[in-house]
Design brief:
single chain, about 280 residues, alpha/beta, Rossmann fold, 2 domains, three-stranded antiparallel sheet, binds adenosine monophosphate
């Protein structure tokens, strides 16, 4: 396994691999790897010939006052975990080489970026789509793997890939959870023991919503009211958004059906956790 920081070297290696007929599988991340990332790498290993992992804490997707500087980083540990999962190349560029002086180009997906995380974090998805478009241009992947943990992000990347005719197959992968139900996230390290326990309200809310849906409750408002009460029962939890949306349009749904996804972002103390699930 090699760790490459230089943009041109990375691009040359990937172009050479493509010319040699190798299928490039790509997993973009911000590092501080956990089993969620590893599940993406394993699928990439299974489906590609050259497995590329990028580790880049992308400054353009963080808003003012967000956790860019505090975001956890540990390249040594990440490299060990990535190698065990069969990674061939890690691309770990510096911010300066991704966005050198004079940088002026951004990719903006309209519509589905206006709601949910897009409404709470203005400019976030513009940063995500810009960096993913750049990474696709550098790595030239045949396949790119993204987690459903970031449900809206996956929808936005699919939209961008389709709209810009990018020759990449975008693959969505299931959410990996801790044994007690908390969705894995690099940001979980911010939680104190007590906050970690309160954070279980998100997966408990999902379980309750799914149970209500199975029991025949079709009124989205009734389900959301029950979840709000559950989450508000935790003293340090503050709901950022809690919505039931159509899986493709991300428009809110009053009545649930087979396309309904429950999406939530909840602050527990200062840490913002996101989670989601289909209801039926
Ligand atoms: P991040 O490093 O948080 O930007 O995440 C990199 C990729 O890993 C994204 O496609 C995420 O959706 C995915 N990911 C993060 N957490 C999980 C998880 N718990 N299960 C599955 N995929 C995940």
């Amino acid at each position: 396994m090699h760790i490459i920081t230089d943009v041109n070297e990375m691009q040359q290696r990937c172009l050479a691999a493509r010319e040699a007929g190798r299928r490039i599988a790509f997993v973009p991340t911000m590092g501080y790897l956990h089993e969620g990332h590893i599940s993406l790498l394993r699928e990439g290993r299974r489906r590609g010939d050259l497995l590329v992992l990028s580790i880049f804490v992308n400054p353009t997707q963080f808003g003012a006052g967000e956790d860019l500087d505090a975001y956890p980083r540990d390249l040594t540990r990440d490299a060990e975990m990535a190698e065990s999962a069969g990674t061939d190349l890690i691309f770990a560029p510096e911010a300066q080489s991704m966005y050198p002086g004079g940088y002026a180009t951004y990719v903006d997906v309209e519509g589905i970026t206006d709601t949910l995380c897009g409404a709470s974090r203005p400019g976030h998805f513009r940063g995500v789509t810009t960096v993913v478009a750049k990474l696709f241009a550098i790595v030239q992947p045949h396949l790119a793997f993204f987690g459903q943990k970031d449900f809206q992000q996956l929808a936005v990347i699919r939209r961008m890939t389709l709209d810009l005719n990018l020759p990449v197959e975008v693959v969505g992968m299931p959410i990996v959870r801790e044994a007690d139900g908390l969705a894995m996230s690099s940001r979980n390290v911010y939680l104190s023991d007590d906050e970690r326990r309160q954070g279980l309200a998100l997966s408990r809310a999902i379980a309750l919503a799914r149970q209500m849906a199975r029991d025949g409750v079709e009124d989205g408002g009734e389900i959301l009211a029950a979840l709000r009460a559950l989450i508000d029962g935790e003293k340090d939890a503050r709901i950022d958004y809690l919505q039931i949306c159509h899986q493709l349009t991300l428009q809110e749904q009053a009545r649930i059906d087979g396309d309904s996804v429950l999406l939530m972002a909840v602050f527990v103390g200062k840490t913002r956790l996101i989670d989601n699930s289909f209801l039926l």
